[in-house]
């Protein structure tokens, strides 16, 4: 006998899994189900979701546009840190999950729901990301994770359940892999990609052209930043979501931002993912370039020392935690002087820095020049080197007796 539940808020995409989950929740728990769908730039048809959810049994439907909040409050903070997981993954899915969970919990509070549900499987990272966020917001919330409860453990079983209950689902057998898309990226996993020796076929890519087929003429762009956040492209000041969308278009047509990764999931297994992050790749390159002239050396090195931990916390799902708040505060403090502009060249999969400038620049040609100058005595380097070599000299002297 299932635990009594009165009302559930379900994170709903309208695909096979969550459509089946919606009906399964109603049957299994004899409860009301409210669906919630977040528009975070997945470019899917959302107009039919309400009708579909209501036809499947939902008592109420929420479809919220969260694109601006996603980029402003989740993507940009992570990019202020140059966050990257295992040196390759720009955290596109990882950054979206806490936002979805946050809004889902807000709706649960508004609706007086006593439970929330999601369609993440029992093998992946998303179940952890969703549920850590749920518990961090309301420790008393009941969480229903159907993939850890039901016996519908295959696509065939899901399709049979859908057919039995008259649930209309669009077949995706022509694409034997799963995807997740938002304004930051699109990912591809499973199916033909589960063999790490097998190259992804060109037809899977959505946001980027093949670098081989990209324009033969490079394109130059300029991005301006204020306190670590991008604010304009080519002189046009844009809100966060529109700015990232514009960079996705620019990077996509030049084949920028593809990555083929075997990563370590939080649950313990390795998985292979193929990603397209065109705008994010451009932003990270530009931000690093601007930091190179505006950030103090020791501040930069200190911040860089905890970026792997910061990225790991996002990947694992610890966004709403005390340690994350402390780390984000430190990151944001390092960005106080990171304002200026970066000029880049986009060409056949490459994003190359052509120039950087800032009113806050710590770079001074008078200090760095190889020509004669009056600000640095080269003789001073001798004592500096001898002091730093002192421990090495003492060690070697002792070794020689």
CATH class of the largest domain: Alpha Beta
Number of strands: 14
Q: What's the N-to-C terminus distance?
A: 80 Å
Question: Strand content of the residues, in percent?
Answer: 15-25%
CATH topology of the largest domain: Argininosuccinate synthetase, chain A, domain 2
Order of helices and strands: EHEHEHHEHEHEEEEEHEEHHHEEHH
The structural domain count equals 3
Number of helices: 12
> C-alpha Rg, in Å?
25 Å
CATH architecture annotation of the largest domain: Alpha-Beta Complex
Summing up helix and strand content along with how strands pair, one would put the structural category as alpha/beta
Helix coverage percent: 40-55%
By CATH's scheme, which homologous superfamily of the largest domain applies?
A: Argininosuccinate synthetase, chain A, domain 2
Mean pLDDT, to the nearest integer, reads 94
- Poorly predicted residue ranges: none
Structure explained in plain terms:
The protein is α/β, with parallel strands linked by helices. The chain has three domains: 130 residues, Rossmann fold (3-Layer(aba) Sandwich), CATH 3.40.50; 180 residues, Argininosuccinate synthetase, chain A, domain 2, CATH 3.90.1260.10; 32 residues, no CATH class. It has twelve helices and 14 strands. The strands form three sheets. It has a five-stranded parallel sheet, with helices on both faces. The chain has a five-stranded antiparallel sheet with strand order 10-9-8-13-14, with helices on one face. Strands 6-7-12-11 form a four-stranded antiparallel sheet, with no helix packed on it. Helix 1 crosses helix 6, helix 3 crosses helix 4 and helix 4 packs across helix 5. The mean pLDDT is 94.
């Amino acid at each position: 006998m299932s635990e009594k539940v009165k009302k559930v808020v379900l994170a709903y995409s309208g695909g096979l899994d969550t459509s089946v989950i919606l009906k399964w929740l109603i049957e299994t728990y004899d409860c009301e189900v409210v669906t919630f769908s977040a528009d975070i730039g997945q470019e899917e048809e959302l107009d039919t979701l309400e009708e579909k959810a209501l036809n499947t049994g939902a008592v109420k439907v929420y479809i919220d546009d969260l694109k601006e909040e996603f980029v402003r409050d989740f993507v940009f903070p992570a990019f202020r840190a140059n966050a990257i997981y295992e040196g390759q993954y720009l955290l596109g899915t990882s950054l979206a999950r806490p936002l979805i969970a946050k809004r889902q919990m807000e709706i649960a509070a508004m609706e007086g729901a006593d439970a929330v549900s999601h369609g993440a499987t029992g093998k992946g990272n998303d179940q952890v990301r969703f549920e850590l966020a749920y518990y961090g917001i309301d420790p008393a919330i009941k969480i229903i994770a159907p993939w850890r409860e039901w016996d519908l453990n295959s696509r065939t079983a899901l399709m049979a359940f859908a057919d039995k209950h008259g649930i209309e689902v669009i077949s995706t057998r022509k694409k034997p892999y799963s995807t997740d898309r938002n304004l930051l990226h699109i990912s591809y996993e499973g199916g033909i990609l589960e063999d790490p020796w097998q190259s992804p076929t060109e037809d899977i890519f959505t946001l980027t052209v093949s670098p081989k087929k990209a324009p033969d003429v490079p394109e130059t762009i300029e991005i301006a930043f204020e306190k670590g956040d991008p604010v304009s492209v080519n002189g046009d000041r844009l809100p966060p979501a529109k700015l990232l969308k514009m960079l996705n278009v620019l990077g996509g047509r030049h084949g920028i931002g593809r990555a083929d990764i075997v990563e370590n999931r939080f649950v313990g297994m390795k998985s292979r993912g193929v990603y397209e992050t065109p705008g994010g790749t451009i932003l990270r390159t530009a931000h690093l370039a601007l930091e190179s002239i505006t950030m103090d050396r020791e501040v930069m090195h200190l911040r860089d020392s905890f970026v792997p931990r910061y990225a790991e916390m996002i990947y694992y799902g610890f966004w709403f935690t005390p340690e994350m708040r402390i780390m984000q505060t430190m990151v944001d403090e390092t960005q106080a002087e990171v304002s200026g502009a970066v000029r880049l060249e986009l060409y056949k999969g490459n994003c190359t820095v052509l120039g950087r400038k800032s009113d806050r620049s710590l770079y001074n040609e008078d200090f760095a020049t190889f020509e004669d100058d009056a600000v640095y005595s080269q003789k001073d380097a001798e004592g500096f080197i001898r002091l730093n070599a002192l421990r090495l000299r003492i060690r070697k002297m002792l070794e020689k007796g």
